[in-house]
Amino acid sequence: MTDTTRRRLLMGAAAMPWLASLPAGAEDLYPARAVTMVVPFPPGGAADIAARPVGEAMGRFLKQPIVIENKPGAGGGIGMAQVAKARPDGYSILMALSSVVVLPEADAVLQRRPMFGLAQLLPVARFTADPVVLAVRADSPWQDYAQFVEALRAKPGAYSFGSSGNYGTMHIPFEQLNAAVGTSMLHVPFTGAGPAVAALLGGQVDAVATGPSTVASHIQAGKLRALAHWGEGRIPTLPDVPSLKELGVQAVYLQWTGLFAPAATPGAVVERLREAARFVANDPHANQSLKAAGTSMQYLDTPDFTPFVAQEARTLAKVVQRIGKVE
Prior knowledge:
Keywords: Signal. This is Tripartite-type tricarboxylate transporter, receptor component TctC. With 327 residues, the protein is α/β, with parallel strands linked by helices. It has two domains: 35-129 and 256-323, Bordetella uptake gene, domain 1 (D-Maltodextrin-Binding Protein, domain 2), CATH 3.40.190.150; 133-247, D-Maltodextrin-Binding Protein, domain 2. It has helices at 3-15, 17-21, 46-62, 77-84, 103-109, 145-154, 172-181, 193-201, 212-220, 267-281, 284-292, 302-323; strands spanning 35-39, 66-70, 92-97, 121-131, 133-137, 160-163, 186-189, 207-210, 224-229, 254-262, 300-301. The chain has a six-stranded mixed sheet with strand order 2-1-3-10-4-11, sandwiched between helices. α3 (46-62) crosses α10 and α3 (46-62) packs antiparallel against α11 (284-292). The longest helix is centred in the last third of the chain and has 22 residues, at 302-323. The N and C termini lie far apart (57 Å). The relative contact order is 0.19.
């Protein structure tokens, strides 16, 4: 090794203290202890519902526990930023919703310091991708979508919807709907889908738009009614619920869950995470657990998930810009 090469390596290590502190060959031993999977929302939402069976199956494959850590706040931004800024050694990973591509753009629109940048996260795998469902209480006066929209038009701003936070995966779909059909509703943000659905059940809000897994059990129990969804076709778990496109409304939105790691995570560690993700995608127990929760495996490996994330970021940035500042 030349002196010049040695100096460059030492300068690189000094610029990245975490790298200098890693023992030689540490990535080859990965994982040597439990891995923390951060879910940036409270229990009961789509990310948490996916994280439980995914984490359990990954743990079986990696032969180390995957510890789920719910870290809600700022529409998911607090937990996402925690992983984006974490030591990139594979022991802090993120189960994110599609809002992960939206929040940096929202920070730009709000002209505030970004909580994190999308470039700080490395896409590993997508697990689910569901159109959000328009749900109301079963005792509401609306038996179908047409009655719902008629009521919104008759009383602009009189009805409310709950969400997981500003610019989140439950906020953007309603903004799309309002823009498409010329209606307005009061937006009531919560810390996650679980609290928002609880507010709907309790009568604090009139509707939600969320992933099928979040409301499926309540629909089956007769507590909620699904009026429409933001997909391209029918949802297998809700075959009688029409899509907005079927109803003549141009609004499509998928709520997906995906695994991310800090961007500088060593390649060997990322490969182990990819292997674990592929194991999950083919694991009967994980697939059955997702199906029982009202969703299904929609797996994408890193080479396909990475451009998917980039395209989602471009598409949803335009929606955020159209929404503008939300205080």
